[in-house]
Amino acid sequence: MAPNPNQLPVITFNTKTLNRSNGAWQSTSHALRGALENYGCFILATDKVSSDLRDTMLELAKDLFHLPMETKVKNTSDLLGFGYGKYASMPLWEYFGIEGGATIEGTQSFTDLLFPSGHKVFCETAFQYMKLLSEIDHCVMRMVFDSYGVDAKECDRMIDSTLYLSRFMKYRSPREGEGIMGLFPHSDKSFLAVLDDDVKGLEIKMKNGEWIYPEPSPSTFIVLAGEPFMAWSNGRIHAPVHQVAMRTSEKEVRNSLGLFSFMRATVEVPEKLVDDEEHYLQFMPFNQIEFLKYVTTEEGKASKCAIKSYCGVTSAGAD
Ligand SMILES: O=C(O)CCC(=O)C(=O)O
Ligand SMILES: [Fe+2]
Questions:
Q1: Would the CB of 183 count as within 6 Å of ligand 1?
Q2: Which terminal CB of the chain, N or C, has fewer other CB atoms within 10 Å?
């Protein structure tokens, strides 16, 4: 698949492509893996999540941002990017994260905390929506493992250990004198992210340095690989730098939703992905939750590619 800077590859998940005994599974798996290697992301077209559910979720997420600040800050977490976030350095951006967001327990305790008098519709919708996103995440994992010829049991081990962070994000338009940057350029510290939004703003840097600007659509998501997935693949999968910019001059608010995956189990490069030539072992086994803590240290913050300085093997990994 030749990289095309203006367009991301589109991968379709439907009953045909998701049936392992159908030939379409294999061709889709290879295309998906190629997309992650060349672009680090792709557009996922699927009817797995109805547009009604997506609209309802995007609408309900707005309720969170109307809460008083003293309620918002109750959503705390020790993990980077979880909890509630609003930073002076990125004043347009605000987010809420749910730890264990694809489970009813996690979603319920978040709802109880933020809406003490109850918000059944929010809880049920968020759980239903994020659970579907977690199923998409599982399918992506299975296809990647399958395409590399890595044992499905290893994939199950990883999926079973996944801690999901569901995140509700809001970007307001800049006021006079403010910059347009909603979220600064970064590569994700999650394994995978499944992203959804209602207004354009996500910008992804390609390997050749050009940026692409995916258009939101009610029938597509963006699936994006993070640094830990790159390490697991021994450097094959790309973890693209991306950012959010509020370029429009109109008074506009951008809402986005995402499900981010983190492995509790040790992440280890599969033997299949190591050889003596091009793919000597580039990353030592690591714990992704410990890696998240490392990212907040001075060394982690100063590093150009945190996963390489955390567990990269050779000088090829140094910044
Ligand atoms: O808001 C978005 O679309 C992207 C958010 C993002 O990149 C992140 O939370 O890491
Ligand atoms: Fe990101």
A1: yes
A2: C
pTM of the model: 0.96
The amino acid occupying position 96 is F
170 C-alpha to ligand 1 centroid (Å)? 10
Measure Cα distances from 233 to 16, 84, 282 in Å. Answer: 27, 31, 9
- Does ligand 1 come within 6 angstroms of the Cβ of 246? no
ipTM here: 0.99
CA dihedral sign, ordered 66, 68, 70, 71: negative
Residues in the chain: 319
Q: State whether the Cα torsion 243-248-253-259 is positive or negative.
A: negative
The DSSP 8-state label assigned to residue 163 in this structure reads E
Q: Which atom of ligand 1 is nearest to the CA of 195?
A: 3
Q: Which ligand is nearest to the CA of 97?
A: 1
Contact (CB, 8 A) for 265 and 232: no
Cβ–Cβ under 8 Å, residues 181 and 198: no
Cβ pair 234, 273 in contact under 8 A: yes
β-bridge partners, 173: none
